[in-house]
Amino acid sequence: MPPMVHCDLKPSNVLLDDVMGACVGDFGLAKFLHGYSSSSGIDGSTCTSLVGPRGSVGYIAPEYGYGSKISTEGDVYSYGVIILEMLTGKRPTDELFKDGLSLYKFVEDSFPEKIGEILDPRMIIPYYGNRDEEEAGSSSDQENHQIAAGIMGCITALAKLGLLCAAETPKDRPAMQDVYADAITIKEEFSALQG
């Protein structure tokens, strides 16, 4: 079976089930890539081409605006933008992003040393939280610090994955199976920190 390209990945098309598992919805723009073989890539003579950019502003791969053919790399790009939005709490269409500043550039400029400064506070409050005065300096304080450092490591790895996926050119983006493997590794590391 040829791969399917969604062509409109964005947060509102990712639904969460009762255990917070992600399910992709709205396949209205999806296409099968006929003529695709994993060893040779896409045979352009049989691939459906995109007539003008379709999808959602901010999430659509830049190459689609230049008339490039639909590719799995386009969905990888959109997935990267979703990751960056999730981490920062800022949509790619936020009014902050003008005069050459984009969500990608916003994260890239802070990566990796200042990544904590651009995170959506809702991402870190549950882990750093408001601790009681008694808790500060306790024997568990050092353990909490180690856990917090581990969580920041996972967040940094996720930001790196988002930046790789949202690279400007398709050839610079990882394959989705590699993205999946990296995401699973990050999830497992995060889960191990939770006990």
From TrEMBL:
It catalyses: L-threonyl-[protein] + ATP = O-phospho-L-threonyl-[protein] + ADP + H(+); L-seryl-[protein] + ATP = O-phospho-L-seryl-[protein] + ADP + H(+). Keywords: ATP-binding, Cell membrane, Glycoprotein, Kinase, Leucine-rich repeat, Membrane, Nucleotide-binding, Phosphoprotein, Receptor, Repeat, Serine/threonine-protein kinase, Signal, Transferase, Transmembrane, Transmembrane helix. PROSITE patterns: PROTEIN_KINASE_DOM (PS50011), PROTEIN_KINASE_ST (PS00108). Its main location: membrane. One of its GO terms (cellular component) is membrane. This is non-specific serine/threonine protein kinase. It is an enzyme of class 2 (transferase). SUPFAM superfamilies: Protein kinase-like (PK-like). The keyword ATP-binding applies. Its EC number is 2.7.11.1. Residues 1-191 form the Protein kinase domain. It is found in: Cell membrane. It holds the Pfam family Pkinase. PANTHER family: LEUCINE-RICH REPEAT RECEPTOR PROTEIN KINASE EMS1, PROTEIN KINASE DOMAIN-CONTAINING PROTEIN. It is a single-pass membrane protein. One of its GO terms (molecular function) is protein serine/threonine kinase activity.
